[in-house]
Amino acid sequence: MPRSFTRAELESFRDREVPDLLPGPDGPVLRLLFVGINPGLWTAATQTHFAHPGNRFYPALLAAGIVERRIDPAAGMTDEDRDHLRSRGIGITNVVRRATAKASELSAEEYRAGGLALVETVRRARPHVVAVAGVTAYRAAFSLPKAVPGRQPEPLAGADLWVVPNPSGLNAHETVASLAEAYAAPARAAGILPPAG
C-alpha cells in the first residue's frame, strides 16, 4: 500500500469496515481490548486500526511499554505487527464499524447500536480489560452523558472497563506522553504491565 492517498482515493473507502484484531481460538489470552470510535478513511484504506500518520496510538503504546517494538501502521500493519500485539494480549475493535472522514458524521443511533454490538464482542472475546478511546463516544454509545475518563464503576460484560483519551491528532491537548500514561493504567489492570510502584 502507498504511504499517501489522494482525497479521492480516501473517499473511496468511506463506509468500509476494518476487521477486529483479536486472538484466534487457540491464541494468547486477550488481556486488553482497545476500542476506537470508528475507522477513519486512512484506517479503512490500509485495513489497519489507528493507521493515520497523525494518530499517536502506537507511539503511546511503545512509550508506555505496552508494546516492545515500534509499529508504523501508515502503510498497513504487517503480520509481524499483528502477531506482536496478539502475543502481548492486545486486541482492537471499534464502537461503530463504518469508516468516515470524521467521527462527527456518526449518528446517535449508530453509537447506541455500536454500544450493543461492543457488549456482544466483549462477551465473545472475553478480554480481562476494555479501554474505550474517547469519552464522548463512550457517553454516546452507552447513554451515560456524565461519564468521566478513567476506570468505570461498572464492568462491561464481565470485563474491567476504562475510558481513555482518543489518540487522534485532532485531540490536540493530548501528547504521546499523556496518552502513554493514560493507557498504562488499564494495561496494568490487565496484567500487561507490572503494578505501579
UniProtKB/TrEMBL annotation:
Q: Which CDD domains match?
A: UDG-F2_TDG_MUG
Specify the Uracil-DNA glycosylase-like domain's residue ranges: 23-184
Q: Where are the transmembrane segments?
A: none
One Pfam family per UniProt: UDG
Q: What are the protein's UniProt keywords?
A: DNA damage, DNA repair, Glycosidase, Hydrolase
Q: Plastid: present as a keyword of the record? A: no
Protein EC: 3.2.2.-
Which principal EC class is assigned to this enzyme? hydrolase
Q: Which InterPro entries match?
A: MUG/TDG (IPR015637), Uracil-DNA_glycosylase-like (IPR005122), Uracil-DNA_glycosylase-like_sf (IPR036895)
Name of the molecule in the record: Mismatch-specific DNA-glycosylase
Q: Which organism is it from?
A: Nocardioides oceani
